[in-house]
Amino acid sequence: MNIHQFSAGFQLGDAISQEMLEIKRLLAKEGYQGNIYAENVLSSDRKFAEKIAKVKIHANDVIVYHHSIHSKVLDFLLQYPNKKILIYHNVTPENFFEPYDLRFSYLLRKGREDLEIIRENFQHSFAVSNFNLSELIHLGFNHAKHFPLHLNFQKWDHNHIESKFKTFQFPSFLFVGRIAPNKCQDDLIRFARAWKSNFGNQFSLRMLGFCNPDQQSYLDELNFMISQLDLQNEVKIISYVDENMVKQIYQESNLFLSMSEHEGFCVPLLEAMHFQMPVVAYAAGAVPETLGNSGILFENKNFDQLTKDISKIFTNIEYRNSLIYHQNVRLDAYLKSTSILPLLEVIKS
Predict the structure, then answer these.
(1) What would the pLDDT profile of 176-235 be if each residue is shown by its tens digit?
(2) Strand, helix or coil at 221?
(3) Residue 52 vs residues 70, 133, 240, 323: alpha-carbon distances, Å
(4) SS3 of 164, please?
(5) Can you tell me which residues the record assigns to a coiled coil (predicted)?
(6) Structure confidence at residue 161 as a pLDDT band (50, 70, 90)
(7) Which residues contact 125 (CB under 8 A, 6 or more apart)?
(8) I need a surface site. Which of 6, 34, 145, 154 has the fewest CB within 10 A?
């Protein structure tokens, strides 16, 4: 028996791709083999995943499908009678993309419609957050279960974390995530304008992530804002390259700030915890669930007030240490909650 995993796309560094790799590693420890397949795979990533045209599915193989958007993958899988397992990562609401990418908006709308097809044709369903699980249950996935997202921090060491704040002379804000309208990098730029107005130009804000070429107009909008608001020296947009770059930028930053308005989980929140960075995030989607009782959540994008609240993190050492302590407790609890056993149970059933 092989356990093959499928998704619309594979790109090393994104949350779904990392989850697929980690599940493959954990299944291999249990003696199960299998490959990762997607409709879209960058040539540089083909040592990790292959295009679906190359798959050979045998009678006893199990199909694990990671769903987040419409693609040809679902129709391809439906032709096989094999056991099918859904892992749901959420579908971003289409309205975020309508002003920038109508094709992508259409794929999101179809991706939500696909859930009804999946419900009728898949034997088992999981969701990577309770936020996602509630959506599946609302749609009639009566036996869906929570399957916490698997994270692999072994690729990063801990040597950097002891004296992190001692080495920084000024605030260095960071957001990691796709350059996309639902992530609201435009609001991060508005925050940067407010910070500069209230506290001067001794700070930096970096936004690290891949931008879909079809959504170049949103990236152009961000760059225009940076120029018009005279933030070229303080605000930088950095295209994702590899994990070494991610690690370096996490190490060089001292506060993680998210304005995202839709998240099915948000892995970078926990990555920031791992790097001992206070996390401040807009309370949207699964973000409150992912943070647990840690970090700072805000529900109103009042940027002047937010700058004042965040400034306390840099001026009050006890407050900052308390934030990091509670984040460490949350991260430890989350990592202990993940297990491959729920997936193994349905594979064997």
Answers:
(1) 999 999 999 999 999 999 999 999 999 999 999 999 999 999 999 999 999 999 999 999
(2) helix
(3) 15, 27, 25, 44
(4) coil
(5) none
(6) low
(7) 85, 86, 88, 118, 119, 136, 141, 143, 144, 145
(8) 154
pTM above 0.70, yes or no: yes
Q: Which two tokens stand for residue 309?
A: 């609240």
CATH architecture of the domain covering 165-335: 3-Layer(aba) Sandwich (3.40)
Closest CA to 292 of 304, 283, 303, 305: 283
Kindly state the tokens that stand for 94. Answer: 């289409």
* Backbone angles phi and psi of 236, in degrees to 5: -130, 140
In the structure encoding, which two tokens stand for residue 173, read together? 């804000």
What are the residue boundaries of the structural domains of the chain, listed by start?
A: 3-150, 165-335
In this structure, are residues 286 and 263 in contact, taking their beta carbons and an 8 Å threshold?
yes
Q: What angle do CA 255, 18, 292 make, to 5 degrees?
A: 45
Rg for the chain, CA atoms, rounded: 21
Q: Which amino acid is at 105?
A: S
- Where does the chain have alpha helices with state H? 15-29, 72-78, 102-121, 130-138, 185-199, 216-228, 243-252, 267-274, 287-291, 303-315, 317-337, 341-348
* Beta-bridge mates of residue 258: 281
Same fold for the domain at 3-150 and the one at 165-335? Answer: yes
